[in-house]
Amino acid sequence: MMNTFQFDTALLLVALPEIFLLSSIVVILLVDLFLTKGFKQVTYYLTQFSLFITGLLAFNLIGHPETVIFSNSFVLDNMASVFKVFMMGATMVAMVYSRHYLTQHSLFRGEYFVLVLLSVLGMMVMVSGYSLLTLYLGLEILSLSLYTLIAIARERSGAIEAALKYFVLGAIASGLLLYGMSMIYGISGSLNISEISAFASDANLGSRETLIINFGLVFLVIGIAFKLGAVPFHMWVPDVYQGSPTSVTMFLSTVPKIAAVAMLVRILIDGLGAMHPYWSDLFMVLALLSIALGSVVALMQTNIKRMLAYSTISHVGFIMLGFVTGVVTGYGAATFYVLVYVFMSLAAFGIIILLNKKGFEADQISDYKGLSKHSPWFALMMLIVILSMAGVPPMLGFYSKFFILQQLVSAGFVTIAIIAVVFAVISAYYYLQIIKSMYFEDSEKEIVVSAPMDMKLILSINAILILVIGLFPDFWMKLALSLF
Amino acid sequence: MTFDQILFYVFSFWFIASSLAMIFSRNAAKAVLFLILSFFSAASIWILLEAEFLAITLILVYVGAVMVLFLFVIKMLNIDKSTLRAKFAGYLPLGLIVAAIIIAEMTLVLGGNQFGLDVVAAPARHAADYSNITVLAMQLYTTYVYPFELAAVLLLIAIIAAITLVHRNELNRKKQSISEQVNVQAKDRVRLVSINSPNKENK
Hints:
The complex is a heterodimer. Chain A is about 75% helix and about 0% strand. Chain A is mainly alpha-helical. In chain A, strands 1-2 form a two-stranded antiparallel ribbon. Chain B has three domains: about 1-80, Four Helix Bundle (Hemerythrin (Met), subunit A); about 80-125, no CATH class; about 130-165, no CATH class. Chain B has eleven helices and no strands. The longest helix of chain B has 25 residues, at about 50-75. Classes of the chains: A mainly alpha, B mainly alpha. The interface between A and B is medium-sized, with 37 and 26 residues.
């Protein structure tokens, strides 16, 4: 055993994005230490630069044949590369928006950027995780950085509460996930995804093995549902969204969802795909509950961040429905949905941040009264985003919902598709409420948009792309489908 | 019954007994001491399983470092026990029901039927020259080198997080400012205030 260890440095090249990102994190951490007050922006530019290069390196690896390195604990396939590129892009956009928020609320600190980069690293590990151990470690790297990011605005009311709530519930979720993993490990004798898959899809699997895999599976599904924020494991979502600084809310509601879906794909499809009949029932219940609760409870919200939290919950329901179908096209639809969701959510939170000023959070729906008069352009952008979230054609959000429903119907889940549509229509009401207050109500308060030019530009492009890609969604749908 | 088995039952008994005592102990410091005993018993069971290095690490790291830290924390924090216990009785029935269901389910799935000796063979004894620490090190730095590095990143995050959350700004730090100390003048230190004494005026 001791002499069989093979190590080829050339294989490390497939992990180049991760290696580069970790090295630049360490460099940024050190550089930030020596920067004087006036040069703190350097950290921001270095962060953007390293994200860009990491994205480029990941982009180069698209089309690379599937490679598994580090003794079966790291996989590079097209899904991993595409997800990594998207994560880098989304994080870069999120950082552009965050900078405005951080300077407005005097939170601009080097650690903020370092922690964001570290959480991105954790997500990359998750996306490429090919053993339960690395998936779990990636998740912990991600979560630990997020807990700190939420608590970074310690003076803010609710931030500590949000961080603590997220921490305690996240710890419970990790515990459940670990427990499920230990059951799977105990029965299959391996942490490796492909070996678990080989074990689970063995035709003469005894009832004892099936029983224990199912026992572990329940815990795995609960752990993943916790991380995704699906009902009934959603309790933390609204409080964390509301209590965190808006830039952190934006970050944690977007990019980590990609990583959570990647983890779901790795464990439940790559690993336990043979157990699909067992976990898809659980998913169906979770998905329908999420869509129903997310749509109905959001009607009562007056805080826009809370409202978006419930909207996230219902979006997560739709994503999970894609996995219920059990066909490759359904998984593709779910992937497409999560990427679209990230895109929309970035723009929605971007607009909230755009209106932020020192001492003004712009987090009440009533704060948007009369936006169309004071800033018609950004009211139009918000309109596009909101219509897309509600699923109105020809916005991108319509196609993502349509794609999921199409797959559901063709897989024979007609009733479920109808229920989902009904709740999607109900949810249109609270989206329209924002449009109503922007366009048909007036406020005596002046709304001043004080954001820097780069943010205005990126935000406009972000929102317009929702419309433009919505008109030509073919390429992206094909891309999402090609990942499975 | 072999000597090994007797040892196993003795250690297991103390393991379970001290864990229960830890949960039910009303005094936090005593709970920590019981936890130390349960760690010790767990370490002994690991030694029976020929995992000496892990056993020693458990004692050195958990008992030696973590638990001592716990004791310090408990002594320094003034925990109000009445608020902790306030809702205990209210939650007790529900908690007991949930616990009973979980135990029943777990024994059904994880009991002797599924993991008994007749289903899963007992681990074979290693040869006399078997070295636990060598095998562990070989595994850790070859097969598991990637997770090992990730764990290192996790520790880095823990350090950054702790410093970020605790160290706020210059104001909170008790730092010596030498230039201020050198440049200090008498008027900065002593302030003479003239007070009109009402008694004098009366005279």
